[in-house]
């Protein structure tokens, strides 16, 4: 095998889609005989799986490339690859080649399946290779999938996005939406369950529009119903949901499928209709609030999380107050808050009314203060309850304890034996913090 005796390390930036892409690349490499290593310094192949949604992520990649360059000086056989969304942007491959000429392989998001062959090409030809296909890549099935990593797995259901939110680069780098066929998704999940997986997270930029492009029309609600019927599977999660496409049929389906977890990540982005329109989000604050009411009516106790952007071009203090007001009304369990950062090639980057950094920072601070208060209050209200937790392993912050997540996606830390990793346990919640809950295993 081509990779026999060779090692690799993948460094992943960005979202769960990228995490899944990195897993896929690792599976391909291992099927070709490569061995993963933890330490970049020991790897014969280093892949940076990049994100371009925020400028910060790109800067991190260049910083990392600078660090890796010294390994190349010590080991000229080292192959350095940059893959993922950043590479997919127009002109990006040239920029990377200029700034980091020691990079051997540039690999677009649609070319990942060719990875082992391209590495061999780099090694044989002893010259850099660029493989970046634009537009829509094919939906490639039957790629090797290594044994599952523990009890949880990501499963991609759609690639790309059709929405063109004005601040977002994703449709340009990942192409238009393509859905995988339900039979391929189900086969993958059944295989994962055979290997001990009990929780799957279905991935897509907009899972709610799943299936619209398929010949045999299947909705996301249909797909969830099929996945719910997979024997041995215990939990189903899904990200990301687009509020515009979250139908009442879907709300009702989710409420009756026992394996679908009571958590929705529902990015609202802004609370002002004027800004939502400028963002091209396709819903109003009133429609969003109605959807939240509908979800809470059908699924009591549901965990709701969101994404919010402050300082979008033209955002006035009044617009921002509407965002604060919406956050106070909804009372999200948690929110990922960002300052608007213009991405070259998007509509929003060219909009008038770009705000000074200080204004964005100050608004972000106010928003975070409000959300942190709400998150803490919501967690405090849960103290005393016994909840089902899927144990993920030793806690990252306190390795003497275990950590895991409730069905509502709350992080819980509690004492317990590491052998419980991958199992469902009942935990009594004893203490609340803003970002997590503490507890103890309940024998009752
Ligand atoms: S829904 Fe909007 S924000 Fe999400 S990936 Fe598509 S264009 Fe980007």
Automatic annotation (TrEMBL):
InterPro entries: Elp3/MiaA/NifB-like_rSAM (IPR006638), Methylthiotransferase (IPR005839), Methylthiotransferase_CS (IPR020612), Methylthiotransferase_N (IPR013848), Methylthiotransferase_N_sf (IPR038135), MiaB_methiolase (IPR006463), rSAM (IPR007197), rSAM_horseshoe (IPR023404). Binds 2 [4Fe-4S] clusters. One cluster is coordinated with 3 cysteines and an exchangeable S-adenosyl-L-methionine. [4Fe-4S] cluster 2 binds at residues 161, 165, 168. It comes from the Bacteria. [4Fe-4S] cluster 1 binds at residues 15, 51, 85. PROSITE patterns: MTTASE_N, MTTASE_RADICAL, RADICAL_SAM, TRAM. It is an enzyme of class 2 (transferase). Its cofactor is [4Fe-4S] cluster. The keyword Nuclease does not apply. One of its GO terms (cellular component) is cytosol. Residues 6-124 form the MTTase N-terminal domain. Monomer. HAMAP family: tRNA_metthiotr_MiaB. This is tRNA-2-methylthio-N(6)-dimethylallyladenosine synthase.
């Amino acid at each position: 095998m081509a990779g026999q005796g060779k090692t690799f390390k993948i460094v992943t930036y960005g979202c769960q889609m990228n995490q899944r892409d990195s897993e896929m690349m690792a599976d391909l490499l291992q099927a070709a005989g490569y061995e993963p290593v933890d330490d970049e310094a020991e790897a014969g192949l280093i892949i940076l799986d990049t994100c371009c949604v925020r400028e910060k992520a790109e800067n991190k990649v260049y910083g990392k490339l600078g660090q890796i360059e010294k390994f190349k000086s010590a080991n000229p056989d080292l192959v350095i690859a940059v893959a993922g969304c950043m590479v997919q942007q127009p002109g990006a491959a040239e920029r990377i080649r200029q700034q980091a000429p020691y990079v051997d392989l540039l690999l677009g998001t649609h070319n990942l399946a060719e990875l082992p062959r391209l590495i061999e090409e780099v090694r044989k030809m002893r010259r850099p290779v660029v493989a970046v296909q634009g537009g829509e890549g094919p939906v490639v099935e039957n790629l090797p999938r290594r044994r599952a990593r523990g009890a949880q797995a990501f499963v991609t259901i759609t690639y790309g996005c059709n929405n063109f939110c004005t601040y977002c680069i994703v449709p340009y780098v990942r192409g238009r939406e393509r859905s995988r066929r339900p039979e391929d998704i189900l086969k993958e999940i059944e295989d994962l369950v055979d290997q001990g997986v009990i929780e799957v997270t279905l991935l897509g930029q907009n899972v709610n529009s799943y299936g619209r492009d398929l010949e045999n029309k299947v909705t996301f609600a249909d797909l969830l119903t099929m996945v719910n019927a997979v024997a041995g599977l215990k939990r189903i999660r899904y990200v990301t949901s687009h509020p515009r496409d979250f139908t009442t049929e879907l709300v009702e389906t989710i409420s009756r499928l026992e394996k679908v977890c009571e958590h929705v990540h529902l990015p609202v982005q802004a609370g002002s209709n004027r800004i939502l329109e400028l963002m091209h989000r396709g819903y109003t604050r009133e429609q969003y609030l109605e959807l939240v009411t509908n979800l809470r009516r059908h699924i009591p106790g549901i965990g709701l999380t969101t994404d919010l952007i402050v300082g979008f071009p033209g955002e006035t203090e009044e617009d921002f107050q509407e965002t604060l007001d919406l956050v106070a009304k909804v009372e999200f369990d948690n929110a990922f808050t960002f300052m608007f950062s213009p991405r070259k090639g998007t509509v929003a980057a060219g909009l008038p009314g770009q705000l000074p950094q200080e204004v964005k920072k100050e608004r972000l601070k106010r928003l975070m203060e409000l959300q942190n208060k709400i998150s803490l209050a919501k967690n405090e209200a849960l103290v005393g309850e016994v909840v089902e937790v899927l144990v993920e392993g030793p806690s990252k912050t306190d390795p003497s304890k275990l950590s895991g997540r409730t069905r509502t996606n709350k992080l819980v830390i509690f004492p317990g034996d590491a052998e419980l990793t991958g199992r469902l346990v009942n935990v009594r919640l004893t203490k609340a913090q803003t970002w997590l809950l503490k507890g103890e295993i309940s024998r009752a």
